[in-house]
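Homework help board

Subject: predicted structure for assignment chain

Our instructor gave us this sequence and asked us to write out the predicted structure in token form, then describe one feature. I got the tokens but I'm not sure how to describe them. Can anyone check?
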Amino acid sequence: MTITAQHHCRFCKAPLKTVFLDLGETPLANSYLSKEHLALPEPKYPLFVHVCDECLLLQAQPVVSAAHIFSDYAYFSSYSSSWLEHAKNYSRMMIEKLNLGANSFVVEIASNDGYLLKNFIEAHIPCLGVEPAANVAAVAVANKVPTEVRFFGEATAAELVAQYGQADLMAANNVMAHVPDLNDFIKGFKVMLKPTGTMTVEFPHVLRLINEIQFDTIYHEHYSYFSLVAIERIFKHHGLTIFDVETLPTHGGSLRIYAGHNDVAPTARMKAVRAAEAAAGLHTLAGYTGFAARVKTVTDGLMAFLKDAKAQGKKVAAYGAAAKGNTLLNVCGAGTDLIGYVIDKNPHKQNHYMPGSHIPIMAPDTLAQTKPDYVLVLPWNLIDEIKGEWQGIAAWGGRFVTAIPQLKIWG
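My token output:
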């Protein structure tokens, strides 16, 4: 497989000089292994992030081809109940806000398994999903969600407009980070969105990544990491205006931006996010320094806990075979000597092994069968959902553990 070293900013093309974080070499975070693959050499790639001196876009280097990563994908949105509720609430809000109906058209980019668009279908609103992963798109199609298996960009947008027309609402949730050709991707929005249309984009907020040491959200599949100051500059360059922003609790703290073709005065909450970023120094290079030392504190803390648990004869399992968990485990160097297994609801991941650490992925009922003393929650952003679903572990004295932003043992 070809790796393309990226020496210039993927937005403004300025030379990349400033390293934000170097996490060494890791395997692809969503490349789960079958038993047969364990005996084969496992590819690993350098994982480090630059901040552009000119536009302040954080970006991972080098680039592993998107076609290699996303044509067959292990992430299915519908396995998180809190995310499904988030999608349902968004759909209701946008239908009301934009007065969407039978004559409207909604398009979601990176529509995954149809988790969001099914809400518009239930409201009898025409819609289309655009999803590059054929295996995931097949699930959406089986659930009656119209889906085109395509990578989105300017040319794809033009073809879709010719076939379906322009969209009143476009949504793109947690996909911007996955796009290597950022400029082509945003040109696609410019083409496909009606002159009076609205687009929303959700992404984890760099401010939260830095403040809460969320380094595990960095992996090869995530090419870029966005602040409002950076994404405003990018959208403006392509003739799109961001006029509103919401702060969301999802994925450890996200932004949902609202944008369109026309100049609109920014809302008060958008001004508030701008001010918060400025207070943190994200409008200058100085705001991106010193992160590596804070990451080491987290990894040292987790490894000390795991080694101490082993010394005491305690059993440790993990919950959620999440991509972010693979970054955490591989950067720490934690493997089967410290963690017995990880459980996951997703049957596509079960009976496989975590990349790098080779920890086996089991069905959820394994937890109750083996009764571990500690359960390390890898998707820490879902800790409240997981605690609610697994209150029973207290019956055998089990306790949940999270590692980000610092080690916490939940009572």
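Reply (TA_rk): Your tokens look well-formed. For the description, you could write something like this. The chain has a mean pLDDT of 93. That's the kind of observation they're looking for.
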